[in-house]
Write a structure and sequence with these properties.
The complex is a heterodimer. Chain A contains 13 helices and no strands. Chain A is mainly α. In chain A, α9 packs antiparallel against α13. By secondary structure, chain B is mainly alpha-helical. Helices cover 64% and strands 0% of the residues of chain B. Classes of the chains: A mainly alpha, B mainly alpha. At the A-B interface, α2, α4 and α5 of A face α2, α3, α4, α6 and α7 of B.
Amino acid sequence: MKPDDELARETGTEIDVSLSALLDGELDATSAAELRARLVVDPVLAERTARFGEVDGQIRGLAAEAPDADRLARLRAALQIRLDAEPDGAAREGGTDSSRGRAPVPRPRRDRRSWLRTVAPYAALLAAGLALYFLGGSRGFRGLLRPEPRIAEIASPAPLDGPASPAPVRDAGSAVLESGRTARSTAADTEVRARSRADVAPDSIDASGEDPVLDSLSDEELAVALQLDVLADLDEIENLEVLELLAQLDAPEPL
Amino acid sequence: MSELDPDVEKMLAFRAGDDSAFDELYSRWAGPLLRYLERMVGDTGTAEELLQEAFFRVHRARARYEAQARFSTWLYHIATNLALNELKRPRRRHVHESDDTAVTGDSMPRIDDIVDSRRRGAAVERLLDGLPERQRMALWLAAAEGHSYAEVATILDTTEKSVKALVHRGRSALVAGLGAAGAVVALPRGRSRAANAADPTR
C-alpha cells in the first residue's frame, strides 16, 4: 500500500469523488471509461480504489448479516397485534413521513352522550338547589327550613314564667343560628334563662340592661349550656355574641 | 421505473385488498431494513420499534399509496425519517455522540484500538457508527443496500449532488480510519463544528 501522505493528495479532490461514484455505478459511461483508463496507469489511484473497495466489502459484510428468522417472525406477530388493536389510520405521533403515504394521527373522539350523562346529574342538582334558594326568599335556604320570625315576636318580651313559650331571644336567634340546632338549643336556652331569672332577682339586673348571669358565662360555658356541637366553630362564637346582644334587648326595662 | 418494480406491484396488490402481498413485502424487506435501522440508531430495541412503526405506516397508507418510486425507496424514506427523529431525541444522543461533529479527536476511537481489533469488519463497524448520521445513512444505503444516488436523495430529502458528497466523505473517512496506522481517525481536518453544521452536505 502507498503511504498515506501520497494517497492524501487525492483525498478530497474531484477525482476522488469520481472514484467513489464509480464504485457506486453513478458515473456516466464516458466519465467511467476515462477513469478506468487512468486507473490502469496510475498506481496511486488504483491503490485508493482498492481501499474504497475494501471498505465497501466490509460494509456489505455487515449488511449481509441477516437478522434471525425467529426474531423477524416475532416482530411480525407484534406488528399484527398492533394492526388489530389500533383503528385504521392510526399512527404513532412524531416523525415525518412521505407525503405519498402519510397516515394522519387520529384524535380520540368523545362520545357526546357519555359527556351528557356525566354532566346531567350535576346540572339537575344545581337547578334543584337554585329552586330551593329562590323559594326560600331573602333568607335563602333557612327560609324554607324555618318561618321568618315576625317583627312582633322579636320586639315583645317573653313572659318570665312561660317556659313552654319560646323566648324571644330564641326566635331572633333562630334567624341566625342553624335551624337544625334551634330545636335542640331551645330547651337548654330556656333552662339558662329560667336559671338566670330564678337565681337573680329582676332588680339585680343593672341599669344598663346587661344580664349578669349571661355575662358571667364564658362563651364556652354558654355553648355547653346551649348544647352547641362545635365549640371551635367561629360561626357559633359569632352567634353567641348575637345571642348575648338579643338577650340584652330582652332584658326588662329598668325602673 | 416504478411499474417495473415487483415490490411496487405487491404494494398495489395490497392496496387492492391482497393482504398476502403485505406479508411478502415484510418478508422481503424487514431484514435489510432492520439492519439499516440498527446501524443508524445504534440500538437493537429502538430499531425494532422503528421497524414496526415503518411497516405499520405502510399498512395504514395502503389506500393512498401511489407508485412514484421503488417501494424500497418509499419504505426507507419512512424509516429514515423515523430514525432521524429518534436520533434527535436527547436520550438517544449518547448512541452516536458524533452525529453533529466531524469525526475527529475524542469522538472517534483511537486507531490503535482499531488496528488491534481482530476483525476488520468490527473496525469498520465502529468507524461507521462514528460517522455523522447523514453520511452514515448515505454510505449505507449506497454501498450496502445498493440504492442509487437518486433514491438516496429521495430517502434523505436532499439532492443527488449532496448524496455524492456524503457518500464520498463517509467512504474516505472509513478508508482513513482503517489505513492511517498510529493516527487519530479523522475526516479532513480543520473543519470546525460550526462549519460542519453549516454544511448541508453533512
